[in-house]
Every structure is written in C-alpha cells, then in structure tokens.
Amino acid sequence: MLPYARQNVSEEDIAAVVAVLRSDFLTQGPAIPHFERSVAERCGARHAVAVSSATAGLHLAGIALGLAPGRSLWTSPNTFVASANCARYCGADVDFVDVEADSGNMAVDALAVKLERAARANRMPTVLVPVHFAGLPCDMAEIAELARAHGVAVVEDAAHALGATYRGGPVGDGRFSECTVLSFHAVKIATTGEGGVILTNRDDLAARLRRLRTHGITREPSELMAPTEGAWGYEQVELGYHYRLTDIQAALGTSQLERLPEFLRRRRELAARYDRLLGGLPVRVPARRPDRESSWHLYPILLERAQGPRGRAEVFAALRAAGIGVNVHYIPVYLQPYYRQLGFKTGDFPGAEARYAATLTLPLYYGLTDSQQDEVVAALGRALCREERVL
Ligand SMILES: Cc1ncc(COP(=O)(O)O)c(C=O)c1O
C-alpha cells in the first residue's frame, strides 16, 4: 500500500540521533536549544519553544494567552481535533468559523460576520486559531486586521505549514499573530517522531511558554518569588505540564531541517505534476494563491461529480483496493460525538460539510516517485470511471 504520507529519514539523520545517544544528555541537554535556534532562523521568529507535540504547543499557547473557563477559542472546522481540543483543556468554550470552498481555509467573510455578531452580543473569543490547511497559508493579513480590531489574540495552527510562505515572508515570522505552532509528527514536512514548536516574537510569551512546558518551574532569578537558599534552588510559580521534547528528538529535528529546502522542492514538484496529470479528470485540484506558497503537506482534491458521501466512499474504497493509501481530511471537528454533545450539529457549517463530502487526499511525500504518482493518477481515473457507471 502506498501511504498518503511518509517520513524520509537519511543516514545523516540517523547519525545525528546516534551521536545524542552516545552523549551525556538524552534530554534537557544542548540539542534542544540548538534545534530551537534552527527552527527560529528558518521561520524568521525571535523565539522557538520546542514541546512534545503541536497539541501540547496549542494547549500552552492557549493558557499563555488567557484561555480559561468562561472564555472561548474559535477555529476552523476543517482541521484535526487538536486545534479545538486545546481550548477544552483550558476549560474554555470552542466555536468554529466556516471555510472557503476551494482552499478549506478559514473564510474571512464568515469571520467578519461572526465577529460583528459576537461584538453585539458581547461574547468575543479570547483566541482565534486559523489553520493553514494542507500547507496553504490562510488570508492572514485580513484575519489579523479583523482580530486586532476586535482585540482577539491570533495563534496560527501551522502544523501543516512548515516552510510555507505568505506575502514574501515565511509562515511563523510573527507578522500576523502572537504565536505560530508547528508539528513535527512523522507525517509532517520534517519530523522529530512526535514533536512541536511554538514560535513567537514576544519575549514575555516565550518565557512563560518555557516555564509552562516544564511543570511551571523556573530558575530565572527575575522570576523567583524569594531569594534562593543555594544553587539547587528552583520555584514552581504556577501549574505547568511535562511537555518537553527529548534531545534525541531534537537532534533528528535539526538534521531534518537541514534537508527542508529539498523536502519542499520535491513536494512542490509533485504537486505541480499532480495538477498537470489530473487535468483531464472530473476533479478540482487544490487551490493556489498568487501571494503565497504552500508547503504541500497534503494534496486534497475535490471530486466534481462524485459528490456526496456514497460516491466518495466508493472512489476511496476502489483506490484502497488498488493499493493506494488515500485519506480524507477532515471530518468537520464539530461532527465528532464529543463536540455534538456540546451542542453542535449537522448543518452548522455548510462550507466544511460540502468540502468533507467531496474531498480525497492523494499520496504526497518526499519519497514518492514519478512512476508511483502516475500509478495513483491511473488508479484514480479507473475508480472515477467505475463510480460513474455505478451512479
Ligand atoms: C492542523 C493540525 N493541528 C494540530 C495537530 C496536532 O499535531 P501533533 O500531532 O504534533 O500534536 C495536527 C496533527 O495532525 C494537525 O493536523
């Protein structure tokens, strides 16, 4: 089975990990700040805080920006559950902003309407989490302007978007948000196995995030409530978590980051190739925008005639039977049983539901060969023909 995504680990990556295994520190050692500096430099951010996952990063960002019971976070329904769950961990409420039909990203017009309504009802969210779906950056200038006008903090969920660019700058450089969260999970652009990074330009936020990822403990003299009795001294000044990355993971991450330009080049090449090869089929290829470049974490197409869950399910099953590991991104988060029991229901966000009914993610990863990609397109063509005969 060709997977929809797959890591690529080189001999250099393995050597970097082995070097840490032979060193003095498996965790809390020098590989972590080294990794953090590499990510911060690549993404143009002042600070990078490495954590155990993007989910942990979103949770800590939520705490640091004031999410708590009685407050709320808004995100896209077209995302992985983690983008919303981070608010629930803080005891805050979650709501969603519908998405654009073509890109699957948060729609600026839907956001504007919803913010106006919230302002009238005096129920503004505390945090807004736009998700750069599949690696294509959202309309960040417009989103940031709306959020700023209403006093809402923005956290970019860039789990898919390491290496993406928007209006001449890298995603993560902090032009449009308080912080940006990256994922280094194995299926992402570059990996640490599991892992995440929070990027921010704010010194205060970076210091708080570093403390929160390690139990709320500090050794910084300026943060201590009382003078230390000796060099062993530390204080737990708030309730934090154990969300650290290990040096083993950080070493893999630094080595992978050196390969990022090559990863991105091949992903972009494969995406352009899919666009060409799919030209004759009744599908819509992923949206592009002239002022930004996707990192191409995913290649989600929309089936034009096979609308509806039955038609898509048949195409999906035929491709899986042919050994093509297609996937579906995403079941709208609010349709999950957990969110339904909080009051959400089918029909709440029609844009996300329409996309979900028609979408299919084709395999896309650094190691996918041209001939494997040809195979995917041929199998898709066969599946679409068969599905048309059945309908
Ligand atoms: C959009 C989005 N946000 C957040 C996450 C959570 O990432 P992690 O697995 O690193 O916690 C994912 C994971 O797939 C994701 O796709």
Q: In words, what does this structure look like?
A:
With 391 residues, the chain is an alpha/beta fold. It folds into 2 domains: 11-258, Type I PLP-dependent aspartate aminotransferase-like (Major domain) (Aspartate Aminotransferase, domain 2), CATH 3.40.640; 260-390, Aspartate Aminotransferase, domain 1 (Alpha-Beta Complex). It is 39% helix and 13% strand. It contains 13 helices and 15 strands. The chain has helices at residues 11-21, 31-43, 54-64, 82-89, 108-120, 140-149, 203-212, 247-258, 260-277, 309-321, 337-340, 350-358, 370-390, and strands at residues 47-51, 72-75, 93-96, 127-129, 153-157, 165-166, 169-170, 179-183, 196-200, 217-218, 235-236, 283-284, 292-293, 299-303, 359-362. The strands form 4 sheets. The chain has a 7-stranded mixed β-sheet, sandwiched between helices. Strands 7-6-13 form a 3-stranded antiparallel β-sheet, with no helix packed on it. Strands 12-14-15 form a 3-stranded antiparallel β-sheet. α1 packs antiparallel against α8, α3 (54-64) packs across α4 (82-89) and α10 (309-321) crosses α13. The mean pLDDT is 96.
Highlighted features:
seven-stranded mixed sheet, Aspartate Aminotransferase, domain 2, 2 domains, Aspartate Aminotransferase, domain 1, alpha/beta, 13% strand, three-stranded antiparallel sheet, binds pyridoxal-5'-phosphate
Q: What is shown here, in short?
A:
The protein contains 13 helices and 15 strands.
SSE diagram, text form:
Blueprint: H1 11-21, H2 31-43, E1 47-51, H3 54-64, E2 72-75, H4 82-89, E3 93-96, H5 108-120, E4 127-129, H6 140-149, E5 153-157, E6 165-166, E7 169-170, E8 179-183, E9 196-200, H7 203-212, E10 217-218, E11 235-236, H8 247-258, H9 260-277, E12 283-284, E13 292-293, E14 299-303, H10 309-321, H11 337-340, H12 350-358, E15 359-362, H13 370-390
Parallel strand pairs: 2-3, 2-4, 4-5, 5-8
Antiparallel strand pairs: 1-9, 6-7, 6-13, 8-9, 10-11, 12-14, 14-15
Helix pairs in contact: 1-8, 2-8, 3-4, 5-6, 10-13
This protein binds pyridoxal-5'-phosphate.
Pyridoxal-5'-phosphate (PLP) binds at residues 53-55, 79-80, 82-83, 131, 157, 159-160, 183, 185, 196.
